[in-house]
């Protein structure tokens, strides 16, 4: 490795394609996109190696060649050469940024980038090929950020363009191009069947590699078109590139995780360009050309105002468990809310819809002049319709326990003496002077660790466990009881795969054996031919709540288009293998329970505010009170995906439905050992 290469820590490949050989398919803002990104990188980073490949329209209208020289054209050969050069020259720990601005197309359900090709107008650089190159970089220890400012799915498009749109970054795919350029790398199989061991939740777009070393920011969701827009100064840009540059300039002195960067982009799109929903895949803890975030971050529910509207909105509604009069602290989006140096604006929920809510001041006064867009909200007090009743049995200082429980405004629990009352959970002290938690049937919950009463912080730790259990139960019991927001137009089936056949379950609570394979099939049957958004969460035996898609870098949800004349576009299937956790086996339990909670919504949203981590199954793993980590999650662990493309005041656009599938998994006497820990 040369001395120059060893000094470089950041690498960039920038691809911008305005010219595709014919004026009618050419674009106008792509080259400008990457030029602005290049300027930003050169100013911001001292040790960066940048290769820029562009295709600008020639001055001669009859020419079929871009204005640049052939070595700078964004062809297949030049792009692959640029990717290989980075992979070869970069060293482990370096950072890579790849930006593509141009047309996208769709082949067999997956993305393809439309690279310039002098003979065929464009070359479809398939998502699988791109993933192959990404994997090589990740395997070399590189941290990769990939920005795709193009149509992400392509062929399914909405009617009508927004008045400010200059061009659509989508191009029809011609099968003749495939004949000219046969596939080199194989695909990963049918996109309709996604396979997973449930505890690992490997459910993601089929062309993506493992997410640990990369993040992908895409300009729009499946079945949407990416647009070019005209900015206030008259320049034409891709919408994602434009808002990304705004965000980077605002955060140039701060290393923010990709998750926060994505959230910021989402709110900007929502307010200024709502016809697109940008997506984020991969490892969201990585930062833009910086070190990854260590440990779980504190994330918030977004707060925003629509243009020309003085109302202030919370991007969560009844589907997320929001209740009228819930109280939140609101901070500017780029502030460090956890530092305690900034006084928040205290607000409360005034009205709740399906996926969003209205916010007002505590005294019901308007707050528009106190809140900027975007802002972020942290839950302070939950007005749950039903608190989980926790009993205190045979412990010292009973009044101290009750007072400590009442101070936890985030919890759903209400602690009191259990004399003559039924409780959801109870705390007892056993003969070894250990605190144990008892369920509603009077049985010790074996998956929870006993806590020595003499352990420092024991009371706080046990209350944290109870708060965790209460939040778990609340998630389990979420139902849509409002006919006005009830979503229909879909079907869900749960099956067990036996050999080459399927056994369709006719009920929502089922028993399966260890290592059983089950398949969840969801179909969009909407008569309005509108897409639906599918979210699948696992409520696991270690009291964790995980998003099956997001946990593995596959994004927040799966979008299902209407099942019309497009082959199987409206259906998706997910295979899961059920296993009893090894930690259960080690303590003599041969069975466990998982709940697959399915949300289906009419608009893109996130239920991340409801996720929970695993609870340590042994006291030796529980050295610190759970309160600290749990508070970070329970304080509205959400992201900026709860957005609608239309006016937030229209309740008809905020429909949702949910369904629980309870799966009891039991080992046979001859079963082999299960996975290391947990179902997810």
TrEMBL record:
Report what the protein is called: Peptidase C14 caspase domain-containing protein
Which is one Gene Ontology cellular component term of this protein? cytoplasm
- Family named by the database record: Belongs to the peptidase C14B family.
Coiled-coil residues are none
Q: Which Pfam families match?
A: Peptidase_C14
Question: Which lineage ranks, top first, belong to the organism behind this chain?
Answer: Eukaryota, Fungi, Dikarya, Ascomycota, Pezizomycotina
Which Gene3D superfamilies does the record match to this protein?
3.40.50.1460
GO MF annotations in UniProt:
cysteine-type endopeptidase activity
Natural source organism: Trichoglossum hirsutum
Which BP terms does GO give this entry? proteolysis
Occurrences of domain Peptidase C14 caspase (ranges) = 10-262
């Amino acid at each position: 490795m040369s001395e120059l290469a060893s000094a470089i820590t950041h690498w960039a490949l920038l691809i911008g394609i305005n010219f595709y050989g014919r004026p009618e398919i050419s674009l106008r803002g792509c080259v400008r996109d990457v030029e602005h990104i290049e300027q930003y990188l050169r100013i911001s980073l001292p040790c960066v190696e940048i290769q820029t490949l562009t295709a600008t329209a020639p001055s001669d209208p009859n020419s079929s060649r871009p204005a640049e020289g052939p070595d700078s054209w964004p062809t297949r050969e030049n792009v692959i050469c640029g990717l290989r050069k980075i992979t070869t020259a970069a060293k482990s720990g370096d950072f890579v940024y790849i930006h593509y601005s141009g047309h996208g197309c769709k082949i067999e359900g997956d993305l393809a980038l439309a690279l310039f090709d002098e003979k065929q107008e464009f070359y479809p650089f398939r998502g699988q090929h791109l993933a192959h190159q990404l994997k090589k970089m990740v395997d070399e220890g590189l941290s990769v950020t990939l920005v795709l400012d193009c149509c992400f799915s392509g062929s399914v498009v909405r009617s009508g363009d927004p008045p400010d749109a200059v061009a659509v970054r989508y191009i029809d795919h011609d099968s003749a191009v495939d004949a000219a350029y046969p596939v080199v790398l194989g695909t990963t199989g049918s996109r309709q069947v996604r396979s997973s061991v449930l505890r690992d939740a490997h459910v993601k777009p089929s062309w993506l590699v493992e997410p640990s070393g990369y993040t992908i920011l895409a300009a729009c969701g499946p079945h949407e078109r990416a647009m070019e827009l005209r900015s206030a100064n008259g320049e034409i840009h891709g919408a994602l590139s434009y808002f990304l540059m705004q965000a980077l300039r605002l955060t140039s002195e701060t290393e923010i995780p990709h998750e926060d960067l994505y959230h910021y982009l989402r709110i900007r799109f929502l307010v200024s360009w709502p016809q697109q929903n940008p997506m984020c895949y991969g490892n969201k803890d990585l930062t833009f050309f910086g070190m990854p975030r260590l440990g779980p971050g504190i994330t918030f529910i977004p707060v925003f105002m629509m243009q020309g509207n003085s109302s202030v909105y919370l991007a969560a509604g009844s589907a997320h468990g929001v209740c009228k009069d819930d109280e939140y602290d609101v901070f500017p989006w780029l502030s460090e809310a956890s530092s305690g140096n900034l006084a928040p604006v205290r607000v409360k929920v005034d009205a709740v819809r399906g996926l969003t809510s209205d916010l007002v001041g505590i005294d019901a006064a308007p707050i528009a002049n106190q809140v900027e867009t975007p802002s972020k909200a942290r839950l302070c007090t939950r007005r749950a319709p039903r608190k989980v009743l926790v009993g205190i049995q045979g412990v010292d200082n009973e009044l101290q326990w009750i007072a400590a429980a009442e101070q936890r405004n985030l919890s759903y629990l209400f602690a009191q003496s259990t004399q003559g009352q039924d409780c959801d959970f109870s705390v007892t002290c056993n003969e070894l002077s250990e605190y144990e938690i008892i369920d509603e049937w009077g049985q010790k919950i074996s998956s929870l660790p006993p806590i020595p009463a003499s352990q420092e912080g024991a009371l706080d730790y046990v209350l944290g466990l109870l708060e965790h259990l209460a939040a778990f139960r609340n998630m389990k019991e979420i139902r849509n009881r409002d006919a006005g927001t009830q979503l229909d137009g879909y079907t869900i089936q749960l099956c067990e795969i036996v050999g080459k056949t399927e056994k369709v379950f006719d009920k929502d609570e089922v028993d399966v054996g260890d290592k059983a394979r089950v398949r969840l099939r969801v179909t969009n049957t909407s008569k309005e031919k509108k897409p639906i958004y599918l979210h699948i969460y696992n409520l696991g035996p270690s009291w964790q709540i995980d998003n099956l898609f997001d946990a593995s870098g596959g994004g927040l949800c799966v979008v299902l288009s209407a099942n019309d004349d497009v082959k199987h576009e409206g259906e998706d299937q997910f295979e899961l293998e059920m296993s009893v956790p090894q930690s259960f086996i080690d303590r003599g339990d041969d069975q466990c329970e998982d709940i697959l909670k399915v949300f289906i919504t009419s608009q893109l949203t996130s239920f991340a505010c409801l996720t929970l981590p695993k609870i340590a199954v042994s006291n030796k793993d529980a050295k610190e009170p759970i309160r600290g980590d749990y508070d970070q999650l329970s304080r509205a662990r959400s992201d900026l995906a709860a957005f609608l493309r239309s006016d937030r005041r229209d309740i008809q656009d905020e429909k949702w439905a949910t369904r629980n599938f309870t799966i009891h998994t039991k080992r046979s006497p001859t079963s082999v050992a299960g996975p290391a820990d947990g179902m997810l």
